[in-house]
Amino acid sequence: MSLNSARIILFPESTQDSLKIVNLPHPRTNQEYHYALVNNEELYELTEFDNDNPHSKTNHLRSLTKTDGKPVRSLLLENVNDESDGLVLEESNIIISTKFNFTYILITYFILQLEQGKEFRRYQSLEDITDVLEESIPIILQLPGSLLNTSLENICDSINENDEKFYKFSEEKTINYLKTKSELISQNFPKSIESTIVSPLLYPANIDEKIPEDIKKLALIKYSIHLISSYLHPKTESRLNSSYNFESVNEYITKIQKEKLQKKAAEDQIQNLNQINAQNKRSIGVQDNKNRKKPTPAKKIPSKVIKGPLDGFFGKKK
Amino acid sequence: MAEERNIDLQSAKTYKVNSIPCRIRYTGPHSSIPKHLIKIQENQEIITYLRGRKLHGKSITNIKGVVLAKDDMSDEIKSLGQVNEVQYYEREGVSIDQVEKIDEFVKLSELIHG
Amino acid sequence: MSAAAAVEEPIEIEDYEPETIVETSQPQPEIQQDFLPPSVPREHTYKSTTFLTPIPKVILENPKEPCVLGVDEAGRGPVLGPMVYGISYCLKNYESILKSKYGFADSKTLNELKRTNLLKQICDQEGELFEQIGWSTRTMTAMDISSGMLRPPSVGNYNLNEQAHDATMDLIQGVLDQGVNLTEIFVDTVGPPVTYQAKLQKRFPNLKIIVAKKADSIYPIVSAASICAKVTRDFSLNNSKDQLYGSEITWGSGYPSDPNTKKWLNNAVDPIFGWDQVVRFSWQTAKDAIIKNDGIEIEWEEDNEKDDYGDVGKLFRDKASQGDGLDGLPISTLWYGRNVNCF
């Protein structure tokens, strides 16, 4: 048994009688990854946690080992019933499993079909759909039918005929499904992302002012779409985005950024002048006029005219 | 990857996993971890020491985990035991963010996939 | 070798002289089984402890009389066991009696046995010393010493001198808080007296502070403090040994050059953990012993000091690593983690 491959996978507290690792194509990237099929009925996504967060500005400061750039972390396992049975595992990334909605894989499949010009006119049986899907997603045969059933219900129109159900993919239903989810996420938006990424983007230049409620709401929906797009093909993502109008948010952010730049430039100029005044005051005892510094013009504000009347007045920095 | 076979989860072994903020260049058994990793409960956290460094940690218990490994010979994935607790440690003075992050991710997942 | 490794004992950062007194092969102090100083924790503990006597009778009866206080330490250099700071105080006009009658500050007659005896007398409720001398000790465990010196760079390390100074100031404050009329403080030091005296003077502006090398042989009250510290340490160390390893084990004085200590240190090294909590892992001796005895290499974050060179991790990231498609998003589940392909 090779302990070098040993990994810890955490499931929510519930019974697992059987567990199978299956490979599925990622709904956004099509790359194959491990998923867990539990009790032959539920599908779980497997996410490994380490400190590597490419969306974080301070990601490059995270601790890594010198020779091989690995996380500075390891695991010590204690057998709760036998003190002499312990394991040391150098590899430390713990895998968290969370329920995975197969609908996302189906959405990618159908949207790509749409992109290729296919039209969905006919209603099809579960069996027929499975047959077609099998070509692109062979693993589907190993998955319980209920999984496919539930997913189709979410994104298809259906009709009953002779006690059998027939499905037809509906783009409208799909987009509505995704919109509902996006809005739900925005109302329960992850705090760490909101405070680190979204809010700083929206804060006005003047700290006493508040972020307008409607802008905040819309911005959170925008970012919720980004989050859910982790599971959407870019084509699906763009269709989802098109169903909203984010103009007001984009304009607001641009306006805020401009105001912040202007504010910083003004503050830099004041600081500059203060420094020079202080230096000049210090060198007042010295007769040498060469020590006197001339004030430097602060960084130019991009939107203003390049050559202004004051440019000649303030000398160049030495 | 080997054919997807059901992994037998029946195991007499249950482990507590300690995640420690250092890289130990060794993977293998150890026969006296509890004796050496003395833990002291302090409010909501656990204090321990490793080679003189003070560590503080938080416990995750509402989980049912499994230790999986690949068999060298058969390439089959096997269970080495279950996991009923994870204790996540950081160096003293460093805040323990990972536990909350896991929580946050689980909640977000429920919204996305529910 | 990280910065933490260089900071060890007296040989370090500030302008302190290297400690030349490395006591070789000290005889194991004679521990009298019937006497356990009240300053020694009964159960071996990882936690640093403070002991403070109530104000002695004679001082209580003469609250306006000036008192003098001495400060000394024991166990700065050893790689095993606690470092103990001791303070001792008495009426100013009693101090000379300490030397003439009892032999404090008489380096010719003081030995292990005599020291233990003197502390015993200080603790003897029937005796004169008990009524005249108040004392206090701060026992700083090996774990606290090590962990302070080995803090991650982001937190900033708490070196031995700072720990020592804080302990001293806390002990003095403890006696002041009791309401004792302290007027003069005498402190033994190993490093340059001037800077330390200024620091203490700043903290206690109303007291006269003298910091001197070998103060324990000049001022009897410092000698008393020295005895409190030394005997407390010796008993503490022995207590820990007995409780952790049994009384048959011998590990010497705990000084790195003591052959018994060296032998013990090199004998029972766990490849991952090293030893129990009595060892000062921040000492170079301990670090070397782990390496010498085939200890497993353990890397901490400070072993790879980060300069802001950008994402070096990118160089090492797997081909199979996720990124295409997700890290292009302004935010994605990569914020939390990534999918796996490990089996």
UniProtKB/TrEMBL annotation, chain A:
Ribonuclease H2 subunit B wHTH domain span: 104-240
Primary location: nucleus
GO cellular-component term (any): nucleoplasm
Gene3D superfamilies hit by this protein: 1.10.20.120
Rnh202 triple barrel domain location: 11-101
Span list, region Disordered: 276-303
PANTHER family given in the database record: RIBONUCLEASE H2 SUBUNIT B
Name of the protein in its database record: Ribonuclease H2 subunit B
Organism of origin: Wickerhamomyces ciferrii (strain ATCC 14091 / BCRC 22168 / CBS 111 / JCM 3599 / NBRC 0793 / NRRL Y-1031 F-60-10)
Classification of source organism: Eukaryota, Fungi, Dikarya, Ascomycota, Saccharomycotina
Automatic annotation (TrEMBL), chain B:
Top-rank taxon: Eukaryota
InterPro entries (alphabetical): RNase_H2_suC
Gene Ontology BP, a term: RNA catabolic process
This protein's GO CC annotations: ribonuclease H2 complex
CDD domains in UniProt: RNase_H2-C
Name of the protein this chain belongs to: Uncharacterized protein
Protein species of origin: Wickerhamomyces ciferrii (strain ATCC 14091 / BCRC 22168 / CBS 111 / JCM 3599 / NBRC 0793 / NRRL Y-1031 F-60-10)
TrEMBL record, chain C:
Cofactor annotation: Mn(2+); Mg(2+)
Gene3D superfamilies per UniProt: Ribonuclease H-like superfamily/Ribonuclease H (3.30.420.10), Ribonuclease hii. Domain 2 (1.10.10.460)
InterPro entries registered for this protein in UniProt: RNase_H2_suA, RNase_HII/HIII, RNase_HII/HIII_dom, RNase_HII_hlx-loop-hlx_cap_dom, RNaseH-like_sf, RNaseH_sf
RNase H type-2 domain residues: 66-295
One Gene Ontology MF term: RNA-DNA hybrid ribonuclease activity
Endpoints of the signal sequence: none
Keywords recorded for this protein, A-Z: Endonuclease, Hydrolase, Metal-binding, Nuclease
Root EC class: hydrolase
Pfam families recorded: RNase_HII
Keyword Repressor appears in the UniProt entry: no
NCBIfam families per record: ribonuclease HII
Family membership: Belongs to the RNase HII family. Eukaryotic subfamily.
Protein name in UniProt: Ribonuclease
Organism per entry: Wickerhamomyces ciferrii (strain ATCC 14091 / BCRC 22168 / CBS 111 / JCM 3599 / NBRC 0793 / NRRL Y-1031 F-60-10)
